[in-house]
Amino acid sequence: MRHTYFIYAGLLSLAVTVPAFANEQTADTEETASKAENTDTATQSKTQQLAQAALAKSSEVAKKLAVNANAAQSDEQKDPFESFNRKIFAFNDTLDRHFARPLAVQYVAKVPTDVRGSYRNFRKNLGEPWNAVNQLIQGRPARAAKSLGRFTVNTLTTLGFADPARRLNMPAESEGFGITMGYYGIPSGPYLVLPVLGPSTIREGVGAVADSQARPQKYILEDHEGAYWSEQVLRGVDARSQLLELEEVLQGDKYAQIRDFYLQRISFAISEKKGGTAENMFIETDDELDDGSSDTSDDQAMPSDESDAPAEADGTQSDNSITK
């Protein structure tokens, strides 16, 4: 009997302690679950905060990249990467002072004006087919026909070393794929300074890549790397030589002046092409001007083309390399 009492007492004690232990274990489980839930909530909240911050940052960057930069805008709007651009500008300026400018000065001093003008005409003549392609993309077939006419006349008569087509009412009009994109309203993006190449924008940078693939020299000299790169260096020196006189008017902050000049020139080139009338449309309209007036409008739109060949600044537009 005594053993039975011990067994009953043990069972009774077990019956009393098991619910208490179960409650304690339940409380511990609930506490652990609560902590895990709080941790998950904190982690989720932090993730949401990071996602929102990343979204805000990407939106800010997209807004900067979508700007259509022009000289009239504030520096923060047209040049949001100014601090970085100025560092590249300083690097380019060092290269210019020690290499590019001395070469350009010697080039002007040693090479006769007529020779420089003939080389410039030859190089520009090779670019006429690409000018015509861009003008067709812009919906200006009449202007494209003139560019092809210029190429034919100048090539057949002087191999492109002179510009007799000008006297036949076929003035030059340089194009670039960046200008063509701007013609259709694609934003330029912020102002950029590229190492060695100088002033640019995102749109003009993309255009420059397309333009480089369209140069006949790339294919004519494909198997002659030395000749190709020699021609590229000569092209750069010739472009730099046309900017020597510009240095005299640069006073104060050269970076800001070159930036605004570059943006003004790009905006003017696009506005000038959009300002055409009859040749801007593939489909004729009732109030369209006749061919004679279209030719006249072309001549009026390009007054600088009537100057002597060596004095043309057209090379600077296509070369896209304004240096200091």
Description of the molecule:
The structure is a single chain. By secondary structure, the chain is an all-alpha fold. It is 68% helix and 2% strand. The chain contains 13 helices and 2 strands, in the order H-H-H-H-H-H-H-E-E-H-H-H-H-H-H. The chain has helices spanning 2-65, 75-78, 82-110, 113-126, 128-137, 141-158, 177-183, 202-214, 216-220, 225-241, 254-274, 291-301, 314-319, and strands spanning 191-194, 198-201. Strands 1-2 form a two-stranded antiparallel ribbon. The radius of gyration is 35 Å and the shape is elongated.
Largest sheet: 2 strands, antiparallel
Q: Helix content range of the residues, please? A: 55-70%
What is the radius of gyration? Answer: 35 Å
Order of helices and strands: HHHHHHHEEHHHHHH
* Shape by Cα distribution: elongated
Structural class: mainly alpha
Strand content: under 5%
* Low-pLDDT windows of residues: 1-5, 18-24, 277-324
Count of β-strands: 2
Distance between the termini: 114 Å
How would you write the strand order of the largest sheet? 1-2
Task: Output the number of helix runs.
Answer: 13
Mean pLDDT, all residues: 80
Quick structural overview:
The chain is 68% helix and 2% strand. With 324 residues, it is mainly α.
Topology:
Elements: H1 2-65, H2 75-78, H3 82-110, H4 113-126, H5 128-137, H6 141-158, H7 177-183, E1 191-194, E2 198-201, H8 202-214, H9 216-220, H10 225-241, H11 254-274, H12 291-301, H13 314-319
Helix pairs in contact: 3-10, 5-6, 7-8, 7-11
Jot down its keywords.
single chain; 324 residues; mainly alpha; two-stranded antiparallel sheet; 13 helices; 2 strands; 2% strand; elongated; disordered N terminus; disordered C terminus
